[in-house]
């Protein structure tokens, strides 16, 4: 999978309100059992599991199994890809604003 596809999966996973809430809970609380995590939402355990699966596929959570218990933990390293992409966009935007500023200043000098 290339970087562009990874970035798309991360953004898609983080684009859903429920998945962002799951990530926030995991960062605040630490690793949680799937059933404990599901208790924070008004939806079925199956629905929460589907959200967790999307987060897993994006690399934003990891699953550890102890016996019959599944513990989910946040994995924030993949967010460095999104940070880098947004930083690149910002730098392009800053360059364009600087060019615009220079153009305006040169017009004022005339």
Q: Which labels suit this protein?
A:
single chain; 110 residues; alpha+beta; three-stranded antiparallel beta sheet; 13% strand; elongated
Describe, in plain words, how this protein is organized in 3D.
It contains five helices and three strands. The protein has helices at residues 3-14, 17-29, 34-38, 45-57, 79-109; strands at residues 32-33, 61-66, 69-74. The chain has a three-stranded antiparallel beta sheet with strand order 1-3-2. A hairpin with a 2-residue loop joins strand 2 and strand 3 (69-74). The longest helix has 31 residues, at 79-109.
Global outline: elongated
Computed over alpha carbons, the radius of gyration is 20 Å
Into which percentage range does the β-strand content fall?
Answer: 5-15%
Instruction: State the helical fraction.
Output: 55-70%
Mean pLDDT: 88
Spatial strand sequence of the major β-sheet: 1-3-2
Low-confidence stretches: none
């Amino acid at each position: 999978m290339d970087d562009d596809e990874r970035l798309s999966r991360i953004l898609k996973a983080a684009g859903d309100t429920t998945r962002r809430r799951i990530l926030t809970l995991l960062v605040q609380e630490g690793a949680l059992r799937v059933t404990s995590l599901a208790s924070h939402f008004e939806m079925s355990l199956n629905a929460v599991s589907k959200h967790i699966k999307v987060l897993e596929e994006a690399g934003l959570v990891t699953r550890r199994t102890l016996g019959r218990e599944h513990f989910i933990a946040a994995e924030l390293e993949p967010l460095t890809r999104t940070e880098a992409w947004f930083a690149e966009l910002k730098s392009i935007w800053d360059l364009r604003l600087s060019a615009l500023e220079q153009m305006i200043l040169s017009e004022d000098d005339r």
